[in-house]
Amino acid sequence: VKVKGIMDPPDKVSIIAHRGASGYAPENTMPSFELALEMKSDYIELDIHLTKDHIPVVIHDETVNRTTNGKGYVRNMTLAQIRRLDAGSWFNEAYPMFAREKYAATPIPTLDEVFDTFGKNISYILEIKDSTNETNIESLLNEYIMKYELKNVVSIHSFSRASLRKFHTINPEIPLYQLVWNDYSQVRVSAAFLKDVKSYAVGISPNFQGITSAYVAQLKRAGLKVMPYTVNYQLNMNKAYLWGVDGVYTNFPDRFLEVIETN
Ligand code: G3P
Ligand code: CA
Protein backbone atom coordinates (compact mmCIF):
# COMPACT_ATOMS: atom_id res chain seq x y z
CA VAL A 1 0.00 0.00 0.00
CA LYS A 2 1.38 3.35 -0.98
CA VAL A 3 1.58 5.72 1.98
CA LYS A 4 1.07 9.32 1.04
CA GLY A 5 3.65 11.68 2.49
CA ILE A 6 3.15 15.29 3.53
CA MET A 7 4.26 16.25 0.05
CA ASP A 8 4.43 14.06 -3.02
CA PRO A 9 8.00 13.22 -4.05
CA PRO A 10 9.31 15.47 -6.83
CA ASP A 11 9.47 14.03 -10.36
CA LYS A 12 13.16 13.39 -9.98
CA VAL A 13 14.80 12.41 -6.70
CA SER A 14 18.58 12.42 -6.88
CA ILE A 15 20.92 9.75 -5.60
CA ILE A 16 23.98 11.56 -4.30
CA ALA A 17 26.95 9.29 -3.66
CA HIS A 18 28.52 10.82 -0.56
CA ARG A 19 32.32 10.89 -1.06
CA GLY A 20 31.51 8.41 -3.86
CA ALA A 21 30.07 4.99 -3.00
CA SER A 22 32.10 5.32 0.19
CA GLY A 23 30.34 2.49 2.02
CA TYR A 24 31.97 0.07 -0.44
CA ALA A 25 35.24 1.72 -1.48
CA PRO A 26 37.69 4.23 0.04
CA GLU A 27 35.98 7.64 0.30
CA ASN A 28 36.86 10.38 -2.19
CA THR A 29 38.91 8.13 -4.47
CA MET A 30 38.53 7.20 -8.13
CA PRO A 31 37.33 3.66 -7.26
CA SER A 32 34.55 5.11 -5.05
CA PHE A 33 33.46 7.46 -7.85
CA GLU A 34 33.57 4.66 -10.46
CA LEU A 35 31.41 2.49 -8.23
CA ALA A 36 28.96 5.37 -7.71
CA LEU A 37 28.55 5.64 -11.48
CA GLU A 38 28.08 1.86 -11.81
CA MET A 39 25.38 2.05 -9.11
CA LYS A 40 23.49 4.63 -11.18
CA SER A 41 24.09 7.57 -8.85
CA ASP A 42 22.99 10.93 -10.24
CA TYR A 43 25.71 12.87 -8.40
CA ILE A 44 29.04 12.25 -6.79
CA GLU A 45 29.76 14.44 -3.79
CA LEU A 46 33.39 15.37 -3.32
CA ASP A 47 35.23 17.40 -0.71
CA ILE A 48 37.82 19.86 -1.96
CA HIS A 49 40.97 21.18 -0.31
CA LEU A 50 43.86 23.08 -1.88
CA THR A 51 47.46 21.90 -1.76
CA LYS A 52 50.36 24.20 -0.86
CA ASP A 53 50.77 24.91 -4.59
CA HIS A 54 47.02 25.71 -4.86
CA ILE A 55 45.84 22.61 -6.70
CA PRO A 56 42.31 21.39 -5.81
CA VAL A 57 42.45 17.83 -4.49
CA VAL A 58 39.68 15.57 -3.28
CA ILE A 59 39.88 14.76 0.42
CA HIS A 60 37.49 15.30 3.32
CA ASP A 61 39.76 16.17 6.24
CA GLU A 62 42.19 19.08 6.39
CA THR A 63 44.96 16.58 7.18
CA VAL A 64 45.90 13.38 5.35
CA ASN A 65 46.22 11.46 8.63
CA ARG A 66 42.94 9.51 8.70
CA THR A 67 42.64 8.39 5.08
CA THR A 68 46.25 7.93 3.92
CA ASN A 69 49.56 6.51 5.07
CA GLY A 70 50.96 10.05 5.49
CA LYS A 71 50.74 12.80 8.09
CA GLY A 72 50.23 16.54 7.82
CA TYR A 73 47.96 19.29 6.59
CA VAL A 74 46.94 19.24 2.92
CA ARG A 75 47.62 22.99 2.71
CA ASN A 76 51.24 22.43 3.80
CA MET A 77 51.96 19.73 1.20
CA THR A 78 52.68 20.11 -2.50
CA LEU A 79 50.73 18.15 -5.08
CA ALA A 80 53.81 15.97 -5.67
CA GLN A 81 53.93 15.07 -1.96
CA ILE A 82 50.18 14.42 -1.88
CA ARG A 83 50.25 12.16 -4.92
CA ARG A 84 52.80 9.81 -3.32
CA LEU A 85 50.31 8.87 -0.58
CA ASP A 86 48.22 5.70 -0.43
CA ALA A 87 44.55 6.67 0.10
CA GLY A 88 43.08 3.16 -0.06
CA SER A 89 44.87 0.72 2.25
CA TRP A 90 43.24 2.19 5.39
CA PHE A 91 39.87 1.15 3.93
CA ASN A 92 40.98 -2.44 3.26
CA GLU A 93 42.13 -2.70 6.87
CA ALA A 94 39.02 -1.06 8.36
CA TYR A 95 36.47 -2.88 6.15
CA PRO A 96 37.89 -6.31 5.26
CA MET A 97 34.49 -7.44 3.94
CA PHE A 98 34.70 -4.83 1.15
CA ALA A 99 38.51 -4.83 0.73
CA ARG A 100 39.86 -5.09 -2.82
CA GLU A 101 43.43 -5.31 -4.03
CA LYS A 102 43.01 -2.38 -6.40
CA TYR A 103 42.17 -0.03 -3.50
CA ALA A 104 45.68 -0.40 -2.07
CA ALA A 105 47.83 2.57 -3.13
CA THR A 106 45.03 4.39 -4.92
CA PRO A 107 46.05 8.08 -4.66
CA ILE A 108 44.19 11.20 -3.54
CA PRO A 109 42.55 12.37 -6.79
CA THR A 110 42.95 15.84 -8.23
CA LEU A 111 39.82 17.67 -9.37
CA ASP A 112 41.38 17.64 -12.87
CA GLU A 113 41.51 13.85 -12.82
CA VAL A 114 37.87 13.53 -11.71
CA PHE A 115 36.52 16.01 -14.28
CA ASP A 116 38.75 14.59 -17.01
CA THR A 117 37.66 11.00 -16.30
CA PHE A 118 33.91 11.41 -15.78
CA GLY A 119 33.16 14.53 -17.84
CA LYS A 120 29.41 14.83 -18.36
CA ASN A 121 28.72 11.16 -17.52
CA ILE A 122 27.64 12.12 -14.01
CA SER A 123 26.78 15.26 -12.04
CA TYR A 124 28.92 16.64 -9.25
CA ILE A 125 28.42 18.35 -5.92
CA LEU A 126 31.67 19.94 -4.82
CA GLU A 127 32.07 20.88 -1.17
CA ILE A 128 34.20 23.90 -0.41
CA LYS A 129 35.95 22.94 2.81
CA ASP A 130 38.39 25.78 3.39
CA SER A 131 37.52 29.20 2.12
CA THR A 132 40.08 31.93 2.77
CA ASN A 133 40.78 35.30 1.16
CA GLU A 134 44.36 34.24 0.39
CA THR A 135 43.47 31.19 -1.70
CA ASN A 136 40.22 32.35 -3.37
CA ILE A 137 39.07 28.77 -3.86
CA GLU A 138 35.70 29.99 -5.22
CA SER A 139 37.26 31.63 -8.31
CA LEU A 140 39.58 28.70 -8.83
CA LEU A 141 36.74 26.15 -8.78
CA ASN A 142 34.75 28.28 -11.18
CA GLU A 143 37.74 28.28 -13.55
CA TYR A 144 37.85 24.47 -13.42
CA ILE A 145 34.12 24.21 -14.12
CA MET A 146 34.50 26.51 -17.12
CA LYS A 147 37.67 24.82 -18.39
CA TYR A 148 35.92 21.44 -18.52
CA GLU A 149 32.62 22.97 -19.76
CA LEU A 150 30.72 21.36 -16.91
CA LYS A 151 28.51 24.24 -15.79
CA ASN A 152 25.33 22.23 -16.42
CA VAL A 153 26.39 19.31 -14.25
CA VAL A 154 28.17 20.92 -11.29
CA SER A 155 26.63 22.17 -8.04
CA ILE A 156 28.46 23.54 -5.02
CA HIS A 157 27.70 23.21 -1.34
CA SER A 158 29.33 24.44 1.83
CA PHE A 159 28.64 25.10 5.49
CA SER A 160 30.14 28.56 4.91
CA ARG A 161 27.47 31.09 3.97
CA ALA A 162 30.21 33.61 3.13
CA SER A 163 31.81 31.19 0.68
CA LEU A 164 28.50 30.42 -1.07
CA ARG A 165 27.64 34.11 -1.29
CA LYS A 166 31.04 34.75 -2.81
CA PHE A 167 30.60 31.93 -5.32
CA HIS A 168 27.18 33.30 -6.28
CA THR A 169 28.68 36.67 -7.16
CA ILE A 170 31.39 34.97 -9.26
CA ASN A 171 28.96 32.73 -11.17
CA PRO A 172 25.24 32.99 -10.39
CA GLU A 173 24.45 30.16 -12.85
CA ILE A 174 25.91 27.39 -10.67
CA PRO A 175 23.33 25.85 -8.27
CA LEU A 176 24.38 26.26 -4.65
CA TYR A 177 23.21 24.35 -1.57
CA GLN A 178 23.56 25.64 1.97
CA LEU A 179 24.76 22.87 4.26
CA VAL A 180 23.32 23.07 7.75
CA TRP A 181 23.70 21.04 10.91
CA ASN A 182 20.78 20.92 13.37
CA ASP A 183 21.45 19.58 16.86
CA TYR A 184 17.94 18.22 17.17
CA SER A 185 14.99 17.69 14.82
CA GLN A 186 13.88 21.06 13.53
CA VAL A 187 10.13 21.45 13.17
CA ARG A 188 10.46 24.82 11.54
CA VAL A 189 13.03 27.41 10.70
CA SER A 190 12.85 31.22 10.52
CA ALA A 191 11.37 32.74 7.38
CA ALA A 192 14.17 35.32 7.43
CA PHE A 193 16.79 32.58 7.21
CA LEU A 194 15.03 30.92 4.26
CA LYS A 195 14.67 34.27 2.48
CA ASP A 196 18.36 34.95 2.93
CA VAL A 197 19.41 31.50 1.71
CA LYS A 198 17.15 31.91 -1.34
CA SER A 199 19.05 35.04 -2.31
CA TYR A 200 22.12 32.95 -3.25
CA ALA A 201 21.23 29.22 -3.13
CA VAL A 202 18.69 26.86 -4.72
CA GLY A 203 18.44 24.59 -1.71
CA ILE A 204 19.44 23.47 1.74
CA SER A 205 21.24 20.28 2.68
CA PRO A 206 20.54 19.47 6.35
CA ASN A 207 21.65 16.49 8.44
CA PHE A 208 18.85 13.90 8.24
CA GLN A 209 18.69 13.48 12.03
CA GLY A 210 17.99 17.21 12.35
CA ILE A 211 14.84 17.36 10.22
CA THR A 212 11.16 16.44 10.29
CA SER A 213 8.50 16.16 7.60
CA ALA A 214 7.20 19.62 8.61
CA TYR A 215 10.66 21.14 8.15
CA VAL A 216 10.94 19.61 4.67
CA ALA A 217 7.48 20.92 3.80
CA GLN A 218 8.33 24.44 5.03
CA LEU A 219 11.50 24.59 2.93
CA LYS A 220 9.70 23.32 -0.13
CA ARG A 221 6.88 25.84 0.31
CA ALA A 222 9.59 28.50 0.41
CA GLY A 223 10.75 27.27 -3.02
CA LEU A 224 13.95 25.67 -1.80
CA LYS A 225 15.19 22.18 -2.61
CA VAL A 226 15.94 19.88 0.31
CA MET A 227 18.66 17.23 0.21
CA PRO A 228 19.46 15.61 3.56
CA TYR A 229 22.78 13.93 4.40
CA THR A 230 24.00 11.24 5.16
CA VAL A 231 21.25 8.63 4.99
CA ASN A 232 22.52 5.07 4.99
CA TYR A 233 19.56 2.97 6.19
CA GLN A 234 16.62 2.19 3.94
CA LEU A 235 14.12 2.89 6.71
CA ASN A 236 15.34 6.51 6.83
CA MET A 237 15.73 6.73 3.04
CA ASN A 238 12.11 5.72 2.70
CA LYS A 239 11.02 8.37 5.22
CA ALA A 240 13.01 11.07 3.43
CA TYR A 241 11.55 9.98 0.09
CA LEU A 242 7.99 10.19 1.41
CA TRP A 243 8.67 13.60 2.94
CA GLY A 244 9.33 14.81 -0.60
CA VAL A 245 13.07 15.53 -0.51
CA ASP A 246 14.83 16.32 -3.79
CA GLY A 247 17.81 14.09 -3.15
CA VAL A 248 19.59 12.03 -0.54
CA TYR A 249 23.29 11.87 0.21
CA THR A 250 24.31 8.31 0.98
CA ASN A 251 27.41 6.15 1.23
CA PHE A 252 25.30 3.29 -0.23
CA PRO A 253 23.73 4.55 -3.48
CA ASP A 254 22.44 1.09 -4.43
CA ARG A 255 20.23 1.07 -1.31
CA PHE A 256 18.58 4.37 -2.23
CA LEU A 257 18.07 3.24 -5.84
CA GLU A 258 16.15 0.25 -4.46
CA VAL A 259 13.99 2.54 -2.29
CA ILE A 260 13.17 4.78 -5.28
CA GLU A 261 12.34 1.79 -7.46
CA THR A 262 10.02 0.22 -4.90
CA ASN A 263 8.04 3.40 -4.20
O1 G3P B 1 27.97 16.74 1.99
C1 G3P B 1 27.13 16.54 3.03
C2 G3P B 1 28.08 16.23 4.04
O2 G3P B 1 29.11 15.73 3.27
C3 G3P B 1 28.63 17.34 4.88
O3 G3P B 1 29.41 16.78 5.85
O4 G3P B 1 31.47 16.09 6.90
O5 G3P B 1 30.44 14.59 5.24
O6 G3P B 1 31.53 16.69 4.51
P1 G3P B 1 30.75 16.00 5.59
CA1 CA C 1 31.06 16.56 2.21
Automatic annotation (TrEMBL):
Taxonomically, which superkingdom? Bacteria
> Would the keyword Lyase turn up in this protein's UniProt record?
no
Signal peptide start and end residues: none
Report what the protein is called: GP-PDE domain-containing protein
Q: Which PANTHER family match?
A: GLYCEROPHOSPHODIESTER PHOSPHODIESTERASE (PTHR46211:SF7), GLYCEROPHOSPHORYL DIESTER PHOSPHODIESTERASE (PTHR46211)
Please report the stretch or stretches of sequence annotated as the GP-PDE domain.
13-260
Q: Provide this UniProt record's keywords sorted from A to Z.
A: Membrane, Transmembrane, Transmembrane helix
What the entry lists under PROSITE patterns is as follows: GP_PDE, PROKAR_LIPOPROTEIN
